[in-house]
Amino acid sequence: MIEVVSYNPDWPKLFEAESAQIKQALGDTCIAVHHVGSTAVPGLCAKPKIDIILVVKSMTHVIQSLEKIEYEYRGEFNIPFHLGFRKRPPLTNVNLHVFEEGNPEIELNLLFRDYLRTHPEALKEYATLKLKLLEQSASHEILQGPFKGYTLGKDGFIKKTLDQVGFKGLCVRFCTHYDEWEAARHFRNKYFFDKIPIADPYTWTFDHKDHVHFVLYQGTQIVGYAHIQLWPEQRTALRIIVIDEPFRSQGLGGHFLTLCERWLKEKGHKILQTQSSPEAYRFYKKQGYIEIPFNDPDGYESDPQDIDMGKIL
């Protein structure tokens, strides 16, 4: 069961003690340590777990360094380029989120925290929402990916707050939330399958370990979607990448593709291949792609007009 308690004035002290340990363990790799989440907002009820963001120059050796001070690595969760850790009683009760400098997820968390610190009416609204969610049985169950209904139920308030503070950062996420999967279906149908027209035959990939589905946020709005298939021998295939029409001609497509490439490279994949329509050919050429055989191991037939392209990562 999820536990939410009244604000504890000792929470900032617990953060400071943990922050000192983290800084010592990371040395020059550490750029900043931030207390975030509800325990960082005086007067706000919260789960009694200290949320910390660690900003680093590089992720290299971060896992090993933090494990030496009893942090358990937990994975990316729904955020690429994110390292999630935890430390639990009897040591302490901390969730630690590590990002490299410049990641917009850092700004997102600080803006949300600072707004609640300076707007008592928003703090009260958020506290009321939390207590209401606790009364719902679904809040205590895993509903989407790794997340319980309690976490998902706060999404609307968080997005509303980020809109109010004017957050416009470009964040890439794995499809996890209901809204993200709905956006994936919308993009796939609007820009691909409705034009044929057929029902999308590949929704089974939403639950397949060899298929990765990303969405691109600009602020709180989903503006892009990508579907990547992981092949044997460190090969990968870009099945779909699309930016919604109102947001095109702003460089978002190239930015999104670069983030996908970076994530794949960090996971040890060596090449990203695609089959480009004639209309998209110039886009891929600009991004450094060249014509190479697609060689689909699944043997799917392609549109005869498509051009086989790829890029060494």
Describe, in short, the structure shown.
By secondary structure, the chain is an alpha+beta fold. The protein starts with 10 loop residues before the first helix and ends with a strand.
Report on this structure.
By secondary structure, this protein is an alpha+beta fold. It has two domains: 11-165, Beta Polymerase, domain 2 (2-Layer Sandwich); 170-312, Aminopeptidase. Helix content is 33%, strand content 26%. It has nine helices and 14 strands. It has helices spanning 11-26, 62-67, 104-118, 120-134, 149-153, 155-165, 178-191, 252-266, 281-286; strands at 30-36, 50-56, 72-75, 83-87, 94-100, 142-144, 147-148, 170-174, 211-218, 221-230, 235-243, 271-276, 290-291, 307-312. A hairpin with a 2-residue loop joins β6 (142-144) and β7 (147-148).
Sum up the structure in keywords.
313 residues, alpha+beta, Beta Polymerase, domain 2, Aminopeptidase, five-stranded mixed beta sheet
